[in-house]
Amino acid sequence: MSAATTTRSRTARTPVPDRLCAEAVDLARAAAEEAAAPGVVGEHIGVVSEGDRVVTHYFEAKEPGYRGWRWAVTVARASRAKNVTLDETVLLPGDDALLAPEWVPWSERLRPGDMGPGDLLPTEAEDLRLEPGWTGEDEPPPNSAVSPELAELADSEDAELTDRPVAAISRGSIAAVADELGTRRARVLSRYGLHAAADRWDEEFGPRTPMAQAAPATCVSCAFLIPMAGSLKQAFGVCANEFGPADGHVVSLAYGCGGHSEAAVMPKPVRPADHALDTMRVDAYALRPERGEGSVPAEPDGASEDLGHS
User: Residue ranges of region Disordered (predicted)?
Assistant: First the structure.
């Protein structure tokens, strides 16, 4: 057997617990009770060899809320020494221990609507939703956003903000174009952030929602739709119907609801037809037909007299 094979076999095998260290149960219990408290250290439940003359004793933990945990006390002794010394004491979870859920950073736990008044939400420097904008600070004059005179005044401690000269922006300059396009900021919305926002809006007020499926028409033909600026106007707008479910929200042009401006146009009242006259004279009709001319048969003689004298 080679030397390398012998070394691997010695490393792989589990060392036998040292006898003196394994018998130092009272020393390990005293250390556990000193770290915890008397009465919360339970029965001795095992011994594990950690190496040559290094042994860990395990005791049951009886603290409330620590079900399945155990106190681990490691003891050791020097070579050829008979005195066992304390190495460390720690509370460790067992196989069936009750553990807290895995910690999640706050940036991943945050959900829409969690922010309240006074809360601050910092954005990371490498936020994928943002990208650097154009401020002109790195540009030499005249494209620089800050003129040399303004920079000199800003460095002086007694300069007042109202007395500082404002750097003039000539029409047609890079700064003027950046102002007009809305990109003269430290950071602007990236393409990824734009697409992410569009996906959220389309999911909440898009064509696949039950409201849009039952709508008589889409928002693109509604008079309450306020168009948006930029590239988003090709797919989104803002609802201005106070009775609609999306009032004040960004909606997809393919969204729709029952509050469409042309959904239920009130019909005009039906105009009755003019009365048709076939004659311009008055026809006279007798209340009682004359005898012998009508269809009513003549009464027998004496009938009227009998009725009158009854």
Answer: 287-310
